[in-house]
Amino acid sequence: QHYFQWRYGAGSAPLSAPGWQLPAVPEWTPAGQSVDIPDVDATYRLAIHVANVDTGVVDATATIDIQRFNTPAPSTLYLQVVPAAYGYFTLDSLTLNGQAVSPDWIDGGFTLGVPLPPGASAPLTIAVDFRLSVGQESSGWGGTSLDSGVLRLGYWFPIISDRHVFSETLDPSQSRVADYEVTVDVAPDVVVAHTGTESGRKSLPDGRTRYTLTASDVRDFALALSRSFTTQERTLSNGTVARYYGHPASPSGAAAGAFDAAEKTVSLMNGLVGPYPYPTLTIVDVGPRMPGGLEFPGLIYINGAYAPLDRLVVHEIAHQWMYA
Asked: Which residues contact 98 (CB under 8 A, 6 or more apart)?
């Protein structure tokens, strides 16, 4: 209102803009703000062989297929391993094009440095067999945590990143977009919330269920597993399928409130910034110890009892356009 009065006055012609002399934009990047992640076209094939929602034990393989280096290949490829910062991560083996490699353990294993041979070129495959022993992250904010009957698997696998120390703000993965092909083998009564879409589900000979999941052009892939989730679904006006995974502690009406906030946010951001980029939007109530929420591609963690809930849902969904 003040600007309008200054600019236009009481019906008079617009005033001239001030002759401000703005400082030149610096060409340097402030210390600590440089993110030097290799520019690669990659597909992550993640296989969870065991995911125990009672003990937090996860047995998995992450296979990273690099189809193309869009810039010269680095001498060392850095894999960020957030669970190692909590002591949850055990490396069983790592291979490069089928040959065993001993990575450099940097910052206690938070980053694995994988040396590449001189003149390395694509295609190139890194396979990592690993185990997680997930516990309860003390603050409640942890993306990887066993909390309130929910096994949260956010930032859970080795991902191509840069070399940086673990952040006190629990470090969302710094990564480039990639394609994901994921299988999850779980007990038949476990409900799986996930990034991306479900392309298949089948019963295994041992009685467990295998979920097959896919996602394209996402920076990360998150899951939340629980026996106690209830699910609801709504199609938003832009065609996005929204799903709400309710926790037993979710108050009555939380799902409806979350869906309403999701509809408003997606509609508004579609107009202000650009189209929502994924076919699905997953909202997961991970329980009462989550102080607020966390964003992942196509998926958000929330505390369904947070007040005001619409504010929280709007904030986390807006991160789909402005990640991490």
From this structure: 125, 127
